[in-house]
Design brief:
FAD/NAD(P)-binding domain; alpha/beta; single chain; 4-stranded parallel sheet; 26% strand; 2 domains; binds flavin-adenine dinucleotide; globular; disordered N terminus
């Protein structure tokens, strides 16, 4: 790992310390330049924390979209329980705080020159780069599923137009129709997400189209909070829902968008509405920057989140290989803060201290029925691992009041994290 100290900045190029003392512009050039790429749950809070950590840092946040649309609670939008406007957040407050916001898509990273290039033609040099690009779909990994197919079989795994498309399709479906969801193999964004989605779609169908059927085709035999989900499905949606695990032929091997058909090794499923959650990888700029390994995800140092493949580039959020930590907004937020402190320490020539990170993932099985899983993680053996004995899941035998309370905690968590990140 290359550690760039504060002193190195002052010495950098012609701006030697003695010269810098005499010439104000040279001093200005000596400020540490940090680019944070991606203004989602990881990047936006990381940029803010870096700016707050040291007001002399020049922090630039590069984000492709003018408005961020959040995935957590987007399943409630799909089920007609929430307006998408509640998912949207802007960057005005972060800008007003002093972070430079550049609205453009990054197209190239030159790790040698330490430079990021943007689609609009601009380029920025950096001393440290934090990559937080989230995920991209691995187009073509599931035969038949490409960008054109997503227009009729939405993934809705990035919130926005895809979320609304799936909502409209469910709305237009006749009572008695068949909805099919395909869930991918690990790793992917939000491990409990497909099952929360299935639950809330089942809630919508039970209420408005009770003769319909929901089938979940799964490329796995086990999933997050499985016992809690399955007990709730049995209780709330027994006739309506069917979960087909890998060992019963649940893995979708190809799709045909024209006929809305999903094929497994054992059967062919014709859907009226098909939600294909496909295989994923780190946002494509990670590969361009050379920080993604052959798995498509980014190996990192668990103390600093610095890439194991390229010095001076840190990777946080869904794009990172974070050991036992799931790919969640909660985890992205925790990683962003740890990374901001580590980058600050490194730029000051100090050694970052090993962190402890926390994650909690809430899921709604119905609007007033919440469940959760929590974990605590620490660096050990070069990875982020579970702290033994910490964390846990909601009790299996909790009364309805408890489930309602957890649904409320889920809402409160979303309000808190989005306020902390964007407001
Ligand atoms: C249906 C669903 C439900 C979920 N529910 C929960 C939940 O209840 N709790 C929870 O904790 N997590 C939940 N998640 C997971 C959560 O959304 C992600 O883990 C989180 O968004 C990851 O944050 P991130 O910053 O890594 O990526 P993102 O939040 O996706 O942010 C990445 C940002 O980078 C930008 N970007 C990418 N490439 C470029 C580029 N080249 N140039 C400029 N900008 C770029 C994108 O535009 C985007 O704004 C859910 C996910 C889904 C799909």
């Amino acid at each position: 790992m290359i550690r760039t100290t504060r002193r190195t900045f002052l010495k950098g190029g012609a701006a030697a310390a003695s010269v810098a003392l005499l010439a104000a512009p040279a001093l200005a050039q000596a400020k540490a330049r940090i680019i944070v790429l991606g203004g989602g749950f990881a990047g936006a809070i990381c940029a803010r924390e870096l700016h707050r950590a040291d007001l002399s840092f020049e922090v630039t946040l590069v984000e492709a979209n003018p408005t961020f649309t959040a995935c957590p609670f987007s399943n409630a939008v799909i089920a007609g329980l929430r307006d998408i406007a509640m998912q949207r957040f802007g960057y005005d407050v972060i800008r007003a705080e002093g972070v430079t916001i550049v609205q453009d898509r990054a197209t190239a990273v030159d790790p040698q020159e330490r430079r990021v290039s943007l689609r609009g033609g601009a380029g920025f040099g950096y001393d440290r780069l934090v990559l937080a690009p989230g995920i991209d779909i691995r187009w073509g990994a599931l035969p038949g599923y490409d960008e054109a197919a997503a227009a009729s079989m939405p993934h809705a795994w990035k919130a926005g137009d895809q979320t609304l498309l799936l909502r409209r399709q469910l709305d237009a479906m006749a009572d008695g129709g068949t909805v099919v969801i395909s869930a991918p193999a690990n790793p992917f964004r939000c491990p409990p997400g497909p099952y929360e989605r299935a639950s809330l779609i089942a809630f919508y169908l039970k209420k408005t189209k009770p003769r319909s059927k929901l089938i979940v085709l799964d490329a796995k035999d086990t999933f997050s909070k499985q016992r809690l989900f399955q007990a709730a499905w049995q209780q709330l949606y027994p006739e309506l829902m069917e979960w087909v695990p890998l060992s019963n032929g649940g893995k979708v091997t190809s799709v045909d968008a024209k006929t809305r058909t999903l094929v497994t090794d054992f059967a062919t499923y014709k859907a009226d509405v098909a939600n294909v959650i496909p295989p994923q990888r780190a946002g494509s700029i990670a590969e361009v920057a050379g920080v993604a390994d052959p798995t498509g995800w980014c190996p990192i140092d668990p103390v600093t989140f610095e890439s194991r493949l390229r010095p001076n580039i840190h990777v946080i959020g869904d794009a990172a290989i974070a050991g036992a930590m799931p790919k969640s907004a909660f985890a992205a937020n925790a990683q962003a803060k740890v990374c901001a402190f580590a980058v600050t320490a490194l730029l000051r020539g100090e050694a970052p201290s090993p962190p402890k990170l926390v994650n909690t993932c809430y899921s709604l099985v119905a609007p007033d029925y919440g469940i959760s899983i929590a974990g605590v993680y620490h660096p050990t053996g070069g990875q982020l691992a579970d702290v033994e004995g910490a964390g846990g899941v909601s009790p299996a035998d909790a009364p309805p009041d408890f489930r309602a309370l957890e649904a409320g905690y889920a809402e409160a968590w979303f309000r808190t994290i989005t306020a902390e990140t964007f407001a």
